[in-house]
Design brief:
The chain is mainly alpha-helical. The chain has one domain (about 1-180). Helices cover about 50% and strands about 10% of the residues. The chain contains eight helices and four strands. The strands form two sheets. A two-stranded antiparallel sheet has the order 1-2. A two-stranded parallel sheet has the order 3-4. Helix 1 (about 1-35) runs antiparallel to helix 4 (about 95-105). The radius of gyration is 17 Å and the shape is globular. The N and C termini lie far apart (about 45 Å).
């Protein structure tokens, strides 16, 4: 009942509230990115969602499109703008994903959507992460975020899929807010 009715309903209500509450921040970031990224505010990328179906994830564009003499993009570090650093460090680059939640491609809580190139590499266990909608935050994020080793992320994601509940989602939401406010677990060493 929770998975099929209440979770989708809560996703819509809470993402609408989130968009309304965060709209002043959203607008300020849009203006700052318009200036620093020469008019490009959003970063759109294909990601696999529930059942591996591909959708376009929406994030704030934190890097410019600078290229070297051969026309190849410079490294991420060289392209990350000053505004982008702040937006990423504070996790504000995730705000536009509330639109993905409203569109039904994502949930507030679930396994983070990875790149489509990884789909053929998953084993049966890892593929279970796609039995639910991907989330803006999830069990792996509150248990280490980017510092979590690759295989451990899958273990956390599948554990979430197998144990999804209202209380677990509530716990993940509160711990996520706490970690974001503390700027905890954003960068992985090395």
């Amino acid at each position: 009942m929770y998975k099929k009715i209440f979770k989708p309903f809560l996703d819509i209500i809470l993402s609408l509230i989130g968009i309304l509450v965060l709209s002043p921040i959203f607008i300020m970031i849009c203006i700052a990115l318009l200036i620093t990224n020469k008019g490009k505010v959003f970063f759109l990328q294909n990601r696999p969602g529930k059942n591996g179906e591909i959708f376009r994830i929406i994030k704030f564009k934190t890097m410019n499109d600078r290229k070297d003499e051969q026309g190849c993009l410079l490294s991420d570090e060289e392209r990350l703008t000053s505004v982008g650093k702040i937006v990423r460090k504070t996790s504000l680059d995730e705000i536009p994903q509330l639109i993905n939640v409203l569109l039904g491609n994502m949930s507030l809580i679930g396994p983070r959507p990875l790149l489509p190139e990884y789909l053929p590499l998953y084993n049966d266990f890892q593929r279970k992460r796609h039995l639910v909608k991907p989330g803006i935050t999830g069990w792996a994020q509150i248990n280490g975020r980017n510092a979590v080793e690759w295989n451990k992320k899958f273990t956390f994601d599948v554990w979430y899929v197998e144990n999804m509940s209202f209380l677990l989602d509530l716990q993940i939401m509160f711990i996520t807010l706490k970690k974001v406010l503390k700027l905890e677990g954003i960068n992985r060493e090395g």
